[in-house]
């Protein structure tokens, strides 16, 4: 939160308090503004929040603990499919979100640890390839486990997931306030997701400034030295994998229930790369970076989608680059150029791993 | 027995393509310690450039003999890939040679996806039919075992190219400079080796092999598209690790072994899992092998050491 | 004198090289014990085996009467053995204060749940860790750089920071691997004072050092390694007179020098 406020150009450093309120105001007002341009844009914002959750989780693994995970989307898939199995007509099980969410978190964390155990000793680049392979294996299974017993329904995916119901309140239904005025379900989801994002930020900030956060940073900076001061690097890596995966799993549940259907297509390698690009683009090891990266790189392709097609049609008479191509182009260029020109990301990490306030009496200031 | 021999043939064909691509990975890794993620996509660029050339030739000289056409298209595809690899090294990797260890790897992933996207822009999203200029009518050297002329060509050409590479690396001055650079950049530079040039050349040579592999791969299956390089690339990387990364002989051995494992795995997986898994799971073998090798024998079959470069 | 650490017949082989063979030595509580020898004599290997970075091929370490676990660095630290590195290894992106706080990891216990809820135990522990780390920075004399990033400190200060980080693990035995390497004369004098101060506070010090003057002036007892064997162990004055030691330094050892 503070990090995010500080990152605002000009205002952030001069008046942190105003910047803080500005962030809050934007977060609350964004969907209302978006609605003025059409419902699609509220939907884009909803997805942006999901990507923020994913980026925050991946940042935990890549940015804080320094483990390059290219199969991250697999945990998202675990979450989404957990929701599809436990809250849809597919097996005719309809558990409430309060049961699905923790279960999915547990499954994802277990998957994270299962992946973590064998790959712990690998160096960064090997780890990347093995996790990529893991992601692909999960996708291959999702695609093919409709035979001989139909578990995942194969490439068609699973439809009609139950919507999120909070205390008997169905988020997928518009609320009819008066005859004319109704609150769209997209808003309800937006604020629900926003709540999840805020909760996650608080949690991750607390983690960062703790013995766990410092142990991760230590391990990332110099694994041998981390061992030499008594950090159990195996456990710390497993913890990073498990917590990162939990974020993936929770976002997966939200994604599945929001979208109403899941299919293997949503969990391709490209999505893992997209989330990684968000983290890298924003600035690794930095909460604000992950958030800004996720917002820009999830909204920009949508904006391009709406601009590019009419613009190209006006200029060339037909569409040269379809929106999906534009998105890939944007993501790959973002990744390469960022590494070459500004490797620490849009918002370079000025990450803190301690509270100096405990030393105020000694006259230490930041 | 026939089935068994048939699987060996299939495995050898796929395996020699993997081996050819694996050499590119292993050379670059040996010299820079970088997994050049985009190497697999050079396979795709090679195949699609050759396809483009063939289309052009078919338009201007419809009567040209298939062999001449194939050779000409290779003569275009190889330099294109070499030039691309040179550019890639110069623009994307060289500036990051002393950067933190994750930076070049992330860039390489970006380059891989950029190449795929550009290919998608140039050649579209669709699968293209790749002209099979060498016959695909199977012959039966042994009763019940089929092999096509293109498959024979693949095995022979791969073997020749690998032999050529080994000669280049072991017998020539250039090869000695490459080995010296792989051993220690700074010392090699002090000895008067232009290490920047050697590193660029390593990329370029690997690219040439990848281009040939791409054309053969597409000729065998009769299709080409923008994403065709990624999976074979990953598998070739697996082959390189399996054989012992940084080791030329290892890359070749790893390629063949992986080809055989995949071929047998796909053939027998249904029996082994009582019909639960079928051949659509073929791709998981490579990843499982990769995981197992890295966990139990990270030096690979022929590798000596995996130094802690990080 | 109470024995703190006893090395019993430690052996370590790398391929064809016998880096350590049958090394036994005894370090007493409260002393500064020097480990010297020509380059390649096996001093750093001894450190790595002691601190669990390598598993020995033979022998064991007895620390405070209990056998030290081998190959598990974090458990060795938990027992009370801390080390520094010959080529300084700090957490470069963390501040000086955070480096030392990370060193306190093994003596703290907050878990994910405590961190999530910021319960009383966690908050109190975090406050104590911060204060303790600051005290240690002051102890080694670099508290004014508490919020500076480690990589921006000067060479001598980085050495001090590394020692402070090792002290944060609350060791009984502090193993310093060539702490004076690369230091100028003034810095070495300050280092000597710091080591004496540490000893004065009851922490036993094991010192690998090339600077003979520093070793002789600081150590209570000295062991000499040559080609992986212990060739002498005595008070500095006696070691300096030892024929085998003189031979090792003038003869075989010199050709290994860089």
Automatic annotation (TrEMBL), chain A:
Classification via CDD domains: TM_PBP1_LivM_like
Cite a single GO MF annotation. Answer: ATP binding
Domain of life, source organism: Bacteria
Has the keyword Membrane been applied to this entry?
Answer: yes
Write out the annotated subcellular location.
Answer: Cell membrane
What organism does this protein naturally occur in?
A: Aromatoleum toluvorans
**Keyword Transmembrane helix among UniProt keywords:** yes
Record's bilayer topology term: Multi-pass membrane protein
Q: Name one Pfam family in it.
A: BPD_transp_2
The protein's UniProt keywords, in alphabetical order, are: ATP-binding, Cell membrane, Membrane, Nucleotide-binding, Transmembrane, Transmembrane helix
Membrane spanning segments where?
Answer: 21-42, 48-68, 73-91, 97-119, 126-142, 187-204, 238-261, 273-296
What name has this protein been given in UniProt?
ABC transporter ATP-binding protein
Automatic annotation (TrEMBL), chain B:
Q: Does the record's keyword annotation contain Transmembrane?
A: yes
One Pfam family this sequence matches: BPD_transp_2
Record field: transmembrane: 12-35, 42-61, 67-86, 102-124, 144-169, 198-217, 237-261, 273-296
Question: Which keywords, in A-to-Z order, does the entry hold?
Answer: Amino-acid transport, Cell inner membrane, Cell membrane, Membrane, Transmembrane, Transmembrane helix, Transport
Top-level division of the source organism's lineage: Bacteria
CDD domains attached to this UniProt entry: TM_PBP1_LivH_like
State whether keyword Secreted applies. Answer: no
Mode of membrane association: Multi-pass membrane protein
Where is this protein chiefly located? membrane
| Cell location | Cell membrane
Spell out the family assignment given in the record's similarity comment: Belongs to the binding-protein-dependent transport system permease family. LivHM subfamily.
Can you name this protein? Answer: Branched-chain amino acid ABC transporter permease
| Organism annotation | Aromatoleum toluvorans
TrEMBL record, chain C:
Annotated Pfam families: ABC_tran (PF00005), BCA_ABC_TP_C (PF12399)
Q: Molecular function terms in GO for this entry?
A: ATP binding
InterPro entries in the record: AAA+_ATPase (IPR003593), ABC_AA/LPS_Transport (IPR051120), ABC_transporter-like_ATP-bd (IPR003439), ABC_transporter-like_CS (IPR017871), BCA_ABC_TP_C (IPR032823), P-loop_NTPase (IPR027417)
PROSITE patterns this protein is in?
ABC_TRANSPORTER_1, ABC_TRANSPORTER_2
SMART domains for the chain: AAA (SM00382)
Q: Any signal peptide, and if so, which residues?
A: none
Q: Which UniProt keywords apply?
A: ATP-binding, Cell membrane, Membrane, Nucleotide-binding, Transport
Q: Where is the ABC transporter domain?
A: 5-252
Superkingdom of origin organism = Bacteria
Q: SUPFAM superfamilies under this entry?
A: P-loop containing nucleoside triphosphate hydrolases (SSF52540)
Listed Gene3D superfamilies: P-loop containing nucleotide triphosphate hydrolases
| Protein's recorded name | ATP-binding cassette domain-containing protein
Name the source organism: Aromatoleum toluvorans
